[in-house]
Amino acid sequence: DPAADGLPDGACSCNDYGGDRMILFIQTVALLAVTFACGMYDQKYQRIPNLITLPAMAAGFLLSTTWKEALFKVVLCACLYMIGMTGLIGSGDIKLLMAVACLYGLLPSAFIFILAEFIFLASAIISYKSDRENMKNFLFWLLVHKKIRHGYKWGRYPFAMSMFLASLLVAYLRVREVFP
Fold first, then answer.
1. How confident is the model over 148-157, as pLDDT tens digits?
2. From the CB of residue 28, how many other CB atoms can be counted at a distance below 10 Å?
3. What is the b/e burial string over 82-105, where b = at least 16 CB atoms within 10 angstroms of the residue's CB?
């Protein structure tokens, strides 16, 4: 009950998020730090280091408030790993998504991923707006084939910065809901 927690009407209790406000704050800061660091590294070196994503996954497990939540995160990571095995998304990107899922949970991370895909697509369209033939080919390979992620003739498009921008928006909305 939000009123029992001293919150105004319409605000969500922190219990809706499986923990107290301090855990949400730590999750949010970790999420933004990890996605920003991975985004900058991916922009420069075109890869996402395990040195950032694996500790973030571990922190997500440690911030679990119940053993069921931790077990759910393990199952979620296993499912994401199997999706990554298809090759449709880079292994660094899938590990970053696992870290985001461990830190923020299933629904927020799914929203972050979908929003990041739209940001990624918009940035790719803007970068190729002048060349219609390349744009047609780019959209075909983006939607149908995995090679766009592995440096086909149009180069490599870092995805982690799109994850950061999407994480920033979701973190803002989530924190705003809990801290009115």
1. 444 444 446 6
2. 19
3. eebeeeebbbbbbbbbbbbbbbbb
